């Protein structure tokens, strides 16, 4: 194992306190700090020290793929780290978005010469585990509930949307199409009419809160078609291909397949390709958006997901607990959000303080983690 220096992304919706506090730096930070990237994504690869100078993890993987990735992983994913581990700290809503499945990504990338929607040929499933209380929108809820919420505003122009939703799951596609195709010149008036309605309750509160940042965005109403999820620390949400979702506020550990393919669906000034989004979305009700951790050993839990690109484990150790041994395939990235931990893979040993991370190669042995604190361990899930 060796220390891994992550890269901070300064997107406007980021917190000025969460990542800085995690790393023991003064707060507030000089600017927004939205994400801490701990991987080999070409957009912001993490680095390791080589003779006093930082070298990107991407360069190391390319130079020694069998050592860092292993023959099986290279055969399955190519010379690339197939996952990206992040700390995500949202102080304002992110865009509504969805991601293509693997086949859609390959076909879309091959056909998208301008790289408008498909910048790479990979899918982008995501898992987010809350470090703090975390608000998100995730997956379609019962359309009858959405119909009742939108009908309560009493806005006549929304009656076709309500009618579509009252048709059950089969009407979800039409409801989304109607809202996202709303004439641009009429969008601010639509949101204003919704805000003017004297309606109480969580749905109205959600719409009013989103409208503060997006007063002319029909995504304010699309949000009411989704589950509004409030995670407590340790709970997670899983975003497979075609799942419409948005992070609203909070800090979490996110692991995802390493891709930049995003199709937006509102709550953004960026481009929304309605036709392509409708093609990718899965118009089905998500019965339970929250994923609870599954114990797999003393002090170790995971959140099982049906992909090979990544797996995420959390190790929690109290003072005096025996070391935890994890035999996980491929390269491993370890993040320590709290406490102090020693991590050894038979090749190297690192001591991690809060906010620090380490990386180990596929050619190393099982991880042995000792100390008092918490670690999130990212790996591949090849069987």
UniProtKB/TrEMBL annotation:
Q: Which GO terms describe its biological process?
A: carbohydrate metabolic process; GDP-mannose biosynthetic process
Q: Give the molecular function GO annotations.
A: mannose-6-phosphate isomerase activity; zinc ion binding
Q: Which InterPro entries match?
A: Man6P_Isoase-1, Mannose-6-P_Isomerase, PMI_typeI_cat, RmlC-like_jellyroll, RmlC_Cupin_sf
EC code(s) of this entry: 5.3.1.8
How the cofactor is bound: the record states: Binds 1 zinc ion per subunit.
A single GO CC term for this protein reads: cytosol
Q: Which residues form the active site?
A: 264
**Would I find Acyltransferase among this entry's keywords?**
no
Write down the Pfam families for this protein, in alphabetical order. Answer: PMI_typeI_cat
The protein's matches in SUPFAM superfamilies, at most eight in alphabetical order, are given as: RmlC-like cupins
On the tree of life, the source organism's domain of life is: Bacteria
Q: Where is the Phosphomannose isomerase type I catalytic domain?
A: 4-141
Binding residues annotated for Zn(2+), in chain numbering: 97, 99, 126, 245
Known cofactor(s): Zn(2+)
Q: Which positions, given as ranges, span the membrane? A: none
Query: What's its catalytic activity?
Result: D-mannose 6-phosphate = D-fructose 6-phosphate
Keyword annotations from UniProtKB, A to Z: Isomerase, Metal-binding, Zinc
Q: Which CDD domains match?
A: cupin_PMI_type_I_N
Which family is this protein grouped under? Belongs to the mannose-6-phosphate isomerase type 1 family.
The name of this protein is mannose-6-phosphate isomerase
């Amino acid at each position: 194992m060796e220390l891994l220096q992550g890269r901070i992304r300064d997107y406007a919706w980021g917190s000025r306190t969460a990542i800085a506090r995690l790393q023991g730096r003064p707060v507030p930070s000089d600017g927004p700090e939205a994400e801490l990237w701990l991987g080999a994504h070409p957009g912001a690869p993490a680095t390791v020290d080589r003779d006093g100078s930082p070298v990107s993890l991407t360069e190391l993987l390319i130079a020694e793929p069998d050592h860092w990735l292993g023959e099986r992983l290279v055969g399955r994913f190519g010379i690339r780290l197939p996952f990206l581990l992040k700390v995500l700290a949202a102080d304002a809503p992110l865009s509504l978005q969805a991601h293509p499945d693997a086949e859609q990504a390959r076909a879309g990338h091959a056909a998208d010469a301008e790289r408008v929607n498909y910048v790479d040929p990979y899918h982008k499933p995501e898992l987010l585990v809350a470090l703090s209380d975390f608000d998100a929108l995730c997956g379609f809820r019962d359309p009858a509930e959405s119909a009742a919420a939108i009908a309560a505003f009493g806005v006549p122009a929304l009656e076709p949307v309500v009618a579509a939703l009252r048709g059950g799951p089969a009407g979800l596609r039409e409801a989304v199409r109607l809202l996202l195709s709303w004439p641009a010149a009429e969008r601010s008036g639509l949101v204003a009419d919704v805000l003017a309605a004297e309606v109480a309750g969580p749905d109205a509160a959600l719409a009013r809160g989103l409208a503060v940042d997006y007063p002319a965005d029909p995504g304010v109403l699309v949000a009411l078609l989704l589950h509004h999820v409030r995670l407590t620390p340790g709970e997670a949400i899983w975003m497979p291909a075609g799942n419409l979702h948005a992070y609203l506020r909070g800090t979490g550990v996110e692991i995802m397949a390493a891709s930049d393919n995003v199709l937006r669906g509102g709550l953004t000034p960026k481009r929304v390709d309605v036709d392509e989004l409708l093609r990718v979305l899965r118009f089905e009700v998500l019965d339970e958006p929250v994923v609870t951790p599954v114990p797999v050993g003393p002090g170790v839990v995971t959140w099982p997901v049906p992909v090979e690109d990544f797996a995420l484990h959390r190790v929690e150790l109290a003072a005096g607990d025996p070391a935890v041994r994890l035999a996980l395939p491929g390269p491993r990235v370890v993040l320590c959000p709290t406490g102090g931990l020693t991590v050894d893979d038979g090749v190297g040993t690192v001591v991690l303080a809060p906010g620090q991370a380490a990386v180990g190669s596929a050619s190393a042995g099982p991880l042995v983690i000792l100390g008092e604190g918490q670690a999130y361990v990212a790996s591949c899930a090849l069987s």
